[in-house]
C-alpha cells in the first residue's frame, strides 16, 4: 500500500504506470544490454593486457542475490595482475562506470573490483587454483565474449498475447479440420 501511495505523488511513477508493462520491459532489456556491454568491456580490457584463462560466469538468480556476472582472469605475475586491473578500471571509468569497492591491488594476488551488477576477479595463477571460483560457482552459466555482445532479446512470453493467440487459433483450426475430414477406410 505504501508504494501505491508514493506512486500517486510521484510523476515519474505515474508515467510508468500509464505506459504499462511493455515500456518497463523495454527499459529492463536496455539496462541488461548496457550491463552486458560493460562486462564485455571488462573482458576486452583483460584481453588487451594478455590476461590468461578469462571466463565470464552468469550467476543464477536464486544462488546469488548480490551480483549478476563474474569476470575471472589470471595474470602470470604481480605486475601483470595489477596492469590488468588498472586497464579494466581505466576503460570502465572512461565509460562512466566506477567500482563500488576495490581490494587486493597492493598484494596483487587476488584483485577484486565490485561494480555491483558484476564483479571482476583478477588472480595470480596460484591464488586462482587455491580459491577455484569456477568450482564454487559451478551452477553458473559460462559465457563467451560473443555471447555478451549479442543484444538481449525479448523472451517469447513478453512479445505479447498476439503470437500466443495466433498459435492457439492455428492449432484449433488444424485439429478441427482433422475432425471434419472423414477417414477413408476400406470396407471388408
Give the topology.
Elements: H1 2-9, H2 11-19, H3 21-48, E1 52-58, E2 69-75, H4 78-94, E3 101-103, E4 110-114, E5 118-124, H5 125-131, H6 133-136, E6 141-143, H7 145-149, H8 161-180
Parallel strand pairs: 2-5
Antiparallel strand pairs: 1-2, 1-6, 3-4, 4-5
Helix pairs in contact: 1-2, 3-4
Distance, first to last CA: 73 Å
CATH architecture: 2-Layer Sandwich
Please tell me the overall pLDDT.
75
Which blocks of ≥5 consecutive residues have pLDDT under 50?
A: 1-27, 156-161
How many helical elements?
Answer: 8
Strand share of the residues?
15-25%
- How many domain units? 1
**Helical amount among residues, as a percent range?**
40-55%
Order of helices and strands: HHHEEHEEEHHEHH
Helix/strand class = alpha+beta
The coarse overall form would be globular
Structural description of this entry:
This protein is α+β, with helices and mostly antiparallel strands. It has a single domain (2-149), classed as Beta Polymerase, domain 2. The protein contains 8 helices and 6 strands. Helix 1 (2-9) packs across helix 2 (11-19) and helix 3 (21-48) runs antiparallel to helix 4. It starts with a helix and ends in an 8-residue tail after the last helix.
Which descriptors would you attach to this protein?
disordered N terminus, 6-stranded mixed sheet, 17% strand, single chain, Beta Polymerase, domain 2, alpha+beta, 188 residues
Summarize the structure.
By secondary structure, the chain is α+β, with helices and mostly antiparallel strands.
Amino acid at each position: 500500500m505504501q508504494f501505491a501511495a508514493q506512486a500517486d505523488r510521484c510523476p515519474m511513477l505515474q508515467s510508468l504506470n500509464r505506459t504499462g508493462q511493455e515500456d518497463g520491459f523495454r527499459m529492463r532489456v536496455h539496462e541488461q544490454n548496457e550491463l552486458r556491454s560493460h562486462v564485455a568491456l571488462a573482458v576486452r580490457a583483460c584481453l588487451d593486457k594478455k590476461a590468461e584463462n578469462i571466463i565470464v560466469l552468469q550467476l543464477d538468480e536464486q544462488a546469488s542475490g548480490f551480483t549478476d556476472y563474474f569476470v575471472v582472469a589470471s595474470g602470470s605475475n604481480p605486475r601483470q595482475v595489477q596492469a590488468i586491473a588498472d586497464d579494466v578500471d581505466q576503460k570502465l571509468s572512461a565509460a562512466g562506470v566506477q567500482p563500488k569497492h576495490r581490494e587486493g591491488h597492493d598484494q596483487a594476488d587476488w584483485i577484486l573490483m565490485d561494480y555491483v551488477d558484476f564483479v571482476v576477479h583478477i588472480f595470480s595463477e596460484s591464488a586462482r587454483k587455491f580459491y577455484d571460483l569456477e568450482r564454487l560457482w559451478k551452477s553458473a552459466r559460462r559465457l563467451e565474449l560473443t555471447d555478451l555482445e549479442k543484444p538481449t532479446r525479448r523472451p517469447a512470453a513478453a512479445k505479447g498475447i498476439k503470437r500466443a493467440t495466433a498459435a492457439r487459433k492455428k492449432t484449433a483450426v488444424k485439429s478441427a479440420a482433422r475432425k471434419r475430414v472423414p477417414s477413408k477406410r476400406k470396407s471388408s
